[in-house]
Amino acid sequence: MKNILVPTDFSSHAMAAFETAVSLSRRTGAQVYLYHVIEVPEVAEMHELMAWRESGGEGSMESADGMLRQLVMNEAYHDIRPVYSIDYGTPHKCISAKAAGEGFDLVVIGSHGMSRIDKIIFGSTTEKVIRNTLCPILTINDTISCFQPSTIVFCAGIAAEQACGLETVKSISLLYNAVIHIVKVSTPEHFETTRQSRMAMKTFAETNKLAEYTLNHYNDRSVEEGLKHFAEDINADMLCMPTHGSSGIRHLFRKSVTGSVTGQIAIPVLTCRIPGT
């Protein structure tokens, strides 16, 4: 892990993501890049440009530069020497393009920022970044006080999906001496016996030379609910799962089908988009 991208909108979630990147940098020596995108209309009509100017859009660069400069110059981070850059555009498109174009190993991003309330749970910038970025994404909620994972849940799936994000998980588990809890969620639509699951997971763990790990078979109504419930049952402090570009992890951030409020996923979630999706 050499380069970590941290998109920021200066929200509490973005700051928690930055602190997480700082923790990783201090253990790996990775360079931390703060990145702020000033949103402008994609296809701007005259009235949209006028509204943008009136809202202070043209003065945003100076304001953002000042805040980022103050952050990177903070003595608390002198040992990692973070750097920053600012662009104009559509946030999720700029973030995905920068991650791909500059070869970042990891993107650490807040679970949501200062967007409108109707975008916080579904359709946020973070969700779009997850769906459109190929490198691993570590999503951070602002409730995290210190990134120190010791219990990591790893979602087992079909062969093509299982390898997705594995190297990043292995790296983090070694850095923090964490145990990886491999889990296969069996659902009514995709049932698999415990014996079948455990044999496949054991082969997977041995083939990939995992050090500290456990094998777990979990039954639930859906994979999303199973992962969330299993993580809660073992008090996990990080979850890793592959994601399809078309669906992302939006089901983890909204209410369950029973109508009960599951709340947000409070622990860090590492996702990796499956190539070709």
From TrEMBL:
Coiled-coil annotated spans: none
UniProt name for this protein: UspA domain protein
Top-level division of the source organism's lineage: Bacteria
Record-stated family: Belongs to the universal stress protein A family.
InterPro entries recorded: Rossmann-like_a/b/a_fold, Universal_stress_UspA, UspA
Domain UspA: 1-140, 175-273
